[in-house]
Amino acid sequence: MEKERKEDVLQRSYEAAEDIIKQRAKSFYEAFRRLPEERFQGVCALYAFNRYADDLADGDALGKTREERLLALEELERNVKRSNEWLPVT
Questions:
Q1: Do 66 and 58 meet the contact criterion of CB atoms below 8 Å apart?
Q2: What's the sign of the alpha-carbon dihedral 78, 80, 85, 90?
């Protein structure tokens, strides 16, 4: 299988984030959708990340114990820290 280009993965990620804000926060979506595309994509990505983290924290609604929620949040933190290792220092 051919390795995906980073740009393609990033574009699909932005599209997924836009779907999340459109479905879960209609008023946010309407408020921000007229921003320049790059800014709008950033808003969508930030919203989707925060929505995901909030859903992990509120996992009791999904039948998760407090310990399971904490483990999931710790895993998210490790993943975020690991993803930042390749970023250039400015």
A1: no
A2: negative
Under 8 Å between Cβ of 41 and 17: yes
Would the pLDDT of 6 be above 90?
A: no
Q: Are 47 and 21 in contact (CB under 8 A)?
A: yes
Cα distance between residue 16 and residue 10, in whole Å? 10
pLDDT at 24: 94
For residues 66 and 57, is the Cβ–Cβ distance under 8 A?
no
Residues in CB range of 14: below 8 A, 6 or more apart: 41, 44, 45
Cβ atoms of 56 and 69 within 8 Å: the answer is: yes
CA separation for the pair 15, 26 (Å, rounded): 15
